[in-house]
Amino acid sequence: MSAYGDTYEGPGDEADEDAYENGEGRGRGIGGRNDRGDRADKADSERIFAALPPVHGAGFARTWWGRAWLRALEDTALGGQQLKAGRRYARAGVVGAVSVRPGRITAVVRDRDGTAHRGDVLVQELSGEAWDRLVDLAVDSAGHIAALLDRELPPHLVEDAAAAGLELLPGIGDLEPQCTCEAWDHCPHTAALCYQVARLLDEDPFVLLLLRGRGERALIAALQERSTARAAEAAGGETAGVRPDGAGAAEAPESGAARGTAGVSAAEAFAARDILPPLPAPPVPAAAPGEPPSLDTESDPGPDVDPAALEFLVTDAAARAHRLLSGASSAFTEPELTVGQDAVRLAAGAPATWITARLADGSGRTREELELAVHAWGFGGAAALAVLEGRWAPDTEALRRAEVRLAAAWDADDRPVLRGSDPARWTVVGGDGQLRLGEDGRWWPYREEDGRWIPAGPAAHDPAAALATALR
After folding, report:
1. Which residue, among 76, 79, 74, 25, has the nearest Cα to 49 in the 3D structure?
2. Which residues of 382-418 are buried (b: 16+ CB within 10 A; e: fewer)?
3. Contacts with 396 (C-beta within 8 Å, 6 or more apart), sequence order
4. What number of other Cβ atoms are within 10 A of residue 458's Cβ?
5. Which of the residues 136, 248, 261, 412 has the least number of beta carbons within 10 Å of its own beta carbon?
6. HSE (CB half, 13 Å, CA atoms) of 310?
7. Which residues pair with 100 in a beta bridge?
8. Among the listed ranges 69-83, 173-187, 259-273, 319-333, which one has the minimum average pLDDT value?
9. Do 198 and 65 form a contact (C-beta atoms < 8 A)?
């Protein structure tokens, strides 16, 4: 049973259009030989997925491999209008049952006037030698097998296969259209078929593998057989869970990982620690953060999603990740920020005016208050912001130590007259300078401008140096 309806096996190239539309299948089940006996070794059989119901507002792919399939379509098709029409067809539910065979997908698609067209999309199959190499790559990592059995397409398997010259995912020009409407490029019918197949791929990446020439059971049997053979070679004999005669090697495993793989004890692995090769050097970080993905899609965003604001946050996240990777900052030293503090941090990046206005509103500040907070942030981040907006009241002992430091900071002839105005604040009498004491014991310079106190510089351990900055 597929997530989108029953799955059938059977029709070949000569299947009539009604069979595709109604989701009917005939022929042998998966694993049996059909009329093309020479192909039985490459694929289990054909799978037909019942027609999908209409859908509104949802995207056609949520997995990375489903989106890669659609990129291949959109990079191949020459007409953007044909793709838009194909999306409308797919959403309207006018695509009939989808037949998936090695190298070909087929469906009947109806126009608005009821005219039916058979659309096919051809994909290059992998050779037997290529499949042998792919099975070897999958067996190299137990995680690859487990991911496939959990209906996931592991990206490392695709990357390793590409490095070995095996392209699992289609690229530009790999989706070749054929349609009875006689269009020479992708038409709305073949585009709609591709969009529906993206939804099928989301649920089951074995659909892609069948297109490339190998059905699910045949592939699992090959993986099991290769895993068992390797385990037997490593163990020098019988492998746990597999009889010496190899019985059960072609059966699909019931759990999420291939059975019959020999393990290594922890003591054995620890004993070999000195002979293992060193870890590879860490990759060199990129010179700059990557470009964020575009959120300008055909689907309307949800009621609580603002694509422009989301792109701004994604860009900021990429920049922070780049700083961490390049060693410019550390996740262990960056303080945990409140919502109000993070709003100031974001505003310090000088974003667009409308973003600044939203940050001010979301953090409960006026535009002027946010500007002042950004000014303070530039001198010392969250610590400077706490001195600006906080009302820390030092205890008696901390206040006594602060008075002693103030008295010792100047010679008697040079000492300014300071008046304690607020907790942890001292203002120059008759002047426009002020000192504020932070919770870490540092002094922050402030200067009066237009009737308000603004940060005048970074903190200093010496109150005289801090006040000189404020008066300067």
Report:
1. 25
2. bbbbbbbeeeeeeeeeeeeebeebbeebeeeeeebeb
3. none
4. 15
5. 412
6. 10
7. 47, 105
8. 259-273
9. no
Residues 6+ apart with CB under 8 A from 416: 410, 428, 429, 431, 433, 467
CA distance 45 to 60: 26
Q: Provide the whole-model pTM.
A: 0.45
Q: Rounded to 10 degrees, what is the CA torsion of 80, 82, 83, 89?
A: 150
* Cα(43)–Cα(211) distance, integer angstroms: 9
> For residue 165, what are its two tokens?
């010259």
Q: Say if CB 393 and CB 424 are below 8 A apart.
A: yes
Closest CA to 119 of 98, 93, 101: 98
- Distance separating alpha carbons of residues 147 and 136, to the nearest angstrom: 16
Q: How far is CA 7 from CA 14, 63, 125, 144, 169, in A?
A: 19, 21, 22, 25, 23
% helix / strand / coil in the chain, to the nearest 5?
40, 10, 45
- Residue 209 dihedral angles phi and psi, to the nearest 5°: -65, -35
Say what the pLDDT of residue 254 is. 40
pLDDT in tens, 287-317: 888 877 777 777 777 888 888 888 888 888 8
Other Cβ atoms closer than 10 A to 184: 8
The first and second tokens of residue 112, run together, are 């608005």
The CB-side HSE value for 425 (13 A sphere, CA atoms) comes to 17
Nearest Cα residue to 219 out of 122, 103, 134, 101:
134
**CB neighbour burial string for 194-223, b if at least 16 within 10 angstroms, e if fewer:** bbbbbbbbbebbbbbbbbbbbbbbbbbbbb
Q: Which two tokens stand for residue 55?
A: 């859908």
Helix (H, G, I), strand (E, B) or coil at 108: strand
CA distance 360 to 368: 9
**How many C-beta atoms lie closer than 10 Å to residue 371's C-beta?**
14
CB atoms inside a 10 Å sphere around CB 310:
13
What pLDDT sits at residue 467? 92
Which residue is associated with the tokens 């030293």? 333
